[in-house]
Design brief:
heterodimer; A: alpha+beta; Beta-Lactamase; Heat Shock Protein 90; 3 domains; five-stranded antiparallel β-sheet; five-stranded mixed β-sheet; 52% helix; disordered C terminus; B: alpha/beta; Rossmann fold; Arc Repressor Mutant, subunit A; 2 domains; four-stranded antiparallel β-sheet; 8 helices
């Protein structure tokens, strides 16, 4: 998987390295050049001064008519020297040179030459030799200065500068990584939002995100909305199809019961059978399609509210049975899934209980995260063989018949899509049939 | 007993209307939601068979509008939509019963009968009053141990009287509940049938209140 942070950090690191390296080397060279230029200028001035006071005596001897010497020229091995050559031969040397001579070459008049030479006592000398012409004689004046101390000082400065650079480099990298992380924190928040979206805790992703990722978030939201609309539309069209098909079926059924058909009983019963077959096929397909089979976005639905509404409806449908229904439902019980699926599942379980109960039904729902729903009755219950049969996973809806089977097959179907576990058995408290549906905490929609 | 049958499928509507009429109900029909709501508001029906998928105005809206205006007419919803959340919605809107298509006509008739009885706070079984037992299947009455056959209108009239014992029922009220809207009975036709009934079940059971109407059994 490609990381976004790694190239950012590596790129930043490299560019910082290049910037600092270029800066470091340029700084060193430039300062060194400027320093040498400055010293050379001073040396040239010194040689001009020396030339000004140079007197050429008749007979080829030379003499300096300098009244004032810089003290360094006088002190032995001070690091400041001069040497005057006449026609290539050294004629005058500064007292600081002692016995040593400067290895200098003749420079033609008006020319000047700059070079580094080794001096006495291991000194690094910068020598500036300037050529002059006096009364037809070629004179070369060389002035030298030791650059070792100043270069050493400069080296110390540069080392200091390097240390500061390294520290700044580290600080900058740390700062940049922090900035990148902070920016990518928004992505982590979106990731969290997506998880909550899947869990159904929120309906859409939050749009308070950086501008760069907003288009992506909007696109995801648009998709979610589109999916919701499609689900809604396909459910509506299924409902319409059911309506469209069932009315003619009612008419057909009605016709089969008609007197004229009753003259041929076999024909009538065959027709009624076919109509019933059609009806059950439609029911099966519709119910299968109606199960949303996925976590639909939105807040978890309040289980207590939906079950109460169902109990109210069932009380009216079975008003003649005078059933006593006890409810034991945690008020904060929530179901993170499709409301219609939940109502269909509970409706079938409760309807089954209402059909078979003698007088009492107990419905209980517990757990906020992993909902556990139990419906028990005091009816005849189920034989172990039948329990085996209805408890099988994937009982086919079309194999089940009206009554006990079909409703529970629907329950099995819905539970399977939510990865819920269904257990049928005998109620320990009421003695009749008992059904328990346990929803897992975190589930993935099963393939339909 | 006057029934409003609201169903948009012409074939089903015609056949159901014929069945209901054969069972002694006066039947008005509507093929859309707007007409159904109007009829149900204007006429005192004893029960309504309401299809949910009506054109122009959905059956549930029709039902909600009636209930919002305090119309408590017993309603039996007829629908292809039989998911539990739809049933909950139907009962929430104020229906009294819910029948999923396709259905047996016998089941519809049984539910309708139960619905009307319940509206008169009577529970299932046979309809009995003042020593009479009505046989709704055969449209006859058991009077002092003797089975007496009834004509269609006589049966409708007697059933209505037996469901409202002790109440003063005017001639126009009885006409409204016994004849469909498209029938145009003579103004004294009720008088004729009351007299015919009296000869069959004894004069004492139906008393005349001059200027007010008739009372079956002893007044409240």
């Amino acid at each position: 998987m490609r990381s976004l942070i790694a190239p950012l950090v590596v790129g930043l690191l490299l560019s910082l390295v290049v910037v600092f390296a270029v800066q470091w080397s340029l700084f060193g060279d430039l300062v060194d050049d400027a320093l040498i230029d400055y010293i050379a200028d001073e040396l040239t001035q010194d040689s001009e001064e020396l030339f000004g006071s140079l007197t050429l005596l008749p007979g080829g001897a030379t003499a300096l008519a300098l009244t004032h010497f810089d003290p360094p020229f006088l002190q032995l091995q001070s690091g400041r020297y001069y040497q005057i050559q006449l026609e290539g031969a050294a004629v005058l040397r500064s007292p600081s040179l002692g016995d040593a001579t400067l290895a200098m070459t003749r420079v033609s008049p008006t020319r000047s030459r700059r070079e580094f030479i080794a001096g006495p006592a291991g000194q690094d000398l910068l020598l500036v030799s300037t050529g002059y012409s006096v009364k037809g004689h070629s004179v070369t004046i060389g002035v030298a200065a030791d650059v070792k101390p100043i270069r050493a000082q400069f080296q110390r400065l540069q080392n200091r500068y390097s240390q500061i650079t390294v520290i700044m480099f580290a600080l900058l990298v740390a700062l940049q990584v922090a900035i990148v992380r902070l920016s990518f924190g928004a992505l982590r928040r979106i990731q969290g939002d997506v998880v909550r979206l899947e869990r159904g805790e929120i309906a859409l992703l939050g749009e308070r995100v950086p501008r760069e990722v907003l288009p992506l978030v909007r696109e995801v939201n648009r998709l979610v909305t589109l999916l919701m609309q499609r689900l809604q539309r396909s459910r509506e069209s299924l409902g319409n199809l059911a309506h469209a098909l069932k009315t003619p079926l009612t008419v057909l059924k009605h016709m089969a019961e008609d007197e004229r058909f009753q003259r041929d009983r076999t024909l009538a019963s065959e027709m009624a059978q076919q109509v019933d077959l059609l009806r059950s096929r439609i029911d099966v397909e519709l119910r299968r399609a109606r199960v949303a089979g996925g976590r639909v976005t939105g807040a978890p639905i309040a289980a207590a509210k939906e079950i109460d509404a169902l109990l109210d409806t069932l009380a009216r449908i079975y008003r003649q049975r005078h059933l006593e229904i006890d409810r034991d439902i945690d008020s904060d019980c929530g179901f993170s899934g499709d409301r219609e699926d939940f109502v269909e599942l509970c409706g079938n379980l409760l309807d089954n209980a209402c059909k078979w109960a003698h007088a009492r039904i107990l419905v209980s729902a517990h757990g906020t995260n992993a909902l556990v729903l139990t419906v028990e009755d005091d009816g005849p219950g189920c034989s172990p063989e039948l329990l085996d049969q209805i408890g099988q996973r994937g009982v086919r809806l079309d194999e089940a018949t009206e009554g006990h089977g079909l409703g529970l097959a629907i329950v099995n179907g819905i539970a399977a899509t939510y990865g819920a576990e269904v257990r049928y058995g005998r109620s320990p408290t009421l003695g009749g049939f008992s059904a328990t549906v346990s929803f897992p905490t975190a589930w993935r929609p099963a393939a339909l | 007993m006057k029934i409003l049958l609201a169903e948009d499928d012409a074939l089903l509507r015609t056949r159901l209307a014929a069945d209901l009429t054969a069972r002694g109900y006066a039947v008005d029909v509507a093929d859309n939601g707007v007409d159904a709501e109007h009829l149900g508001t204007e006429w005192p029906y004893d029960a309504v068979v309401l299809d949910l998928g009506l054109p122009q105005r959905p059956g549930l809206d029709v039902l909600r509008n009636w209930r919002a205006r305090g119309n408590a007419v017993p309603v039996l919803i007829l629908t292809a939509r039989d998911a539990w959340h739809e049933k909950v919605e139907g009962f929430d809107a104020g229906t009294d019963d819910y029948l999923a298509k396709p259905f047996h006509v016998e089941e519809l008739l049984a539910r309708l009968r139960a619905l009307i009885r319940r509206a008169h706070t009577r529970h299932g079984g046979e309809l009995t009053a003042e020593g009479l037992t009505l046989d709704e299947e055969e449209q006859s009455v058991l009077c002092d141990g003797q089975k007496v056959a009834l004509s269609g209108i006589e049966f409708r009239l007697l059933r209505y009287l037996m469901l409202h014992p002790g109440q003063i029922l005017s001639k126009s009220h009885l006409t409204e509940h016994i004849y469909a809207n498209d029938a145009d009975p003579d103004s004294n036709v009720i008088e004729v049938y009351v007299n015919r009934l009296r000869t069959k079940i004894g004069t004492a059971r139906i008393t005349t209140r001059r200027g007010q109407g008739y009372v079956f059994g002893t007044p409240d």
